[in-house]
Amino acid sequence: MVVDVDTKEKFAASAPRPLFQTHIIAPSYAYLQYDVSPSGDSFIINSLNPTSPLTLLTNWTADLRKN
Questions:
Q1: Which terminus of the chain is more exposed, N or C, with fewer CB under 10 A?
Q2: Dihedral (Cα; 44, 50, 53, 54), 10-degree rounding
Q3: Rounded CA gap, 36 and 16, in Å?
Q4: Is the pTM of this model over 0.70?
Q5: Cα Rg, the chain, nearest whole Å
Q6: Where are the domains positioned within the chain?
Q7: Cβ of 33: how many Cβ atoms within 10 Å?
């Protein structure tokens, strides 16, 4: 969810609205269904009907040592 915030004269927030659509599997377990990146600019979501495949890169630090 997201809200618009105005602080020019006094604090005012809009009504909450969805930031984006998801297909989270079980809302009652929401804390297990998503995570936010440390930078706060992306999410990973465990969902039904994924829109693109997941690529898992393992041992990526070994490639860093080669360069």
A1: C
A2: 20
A3: 19
A4: no
A5: 18
A6: 20-49
A7: 16
Q: Taking the CA atoms of 33, 48, 1 and 27 in sequence, report the sign of the dihedral they define.
A: negative
Residue type, 9: E
What's the Cα-to-Cα distance from 64 to each of 20, 37, 38, 56, rounded to whole Å? 34, 21, 21, 17
* Cα 47 to Cα 5: distance, rounded to the nearest angstrom: 29
Q: What is the pLDDT of residues 41-66, one digit of tens each?
A: 888 887 766 566 777 888 888 878 77
CA–CA gap between residue 7 and residue 14 (Å, rounded): 12
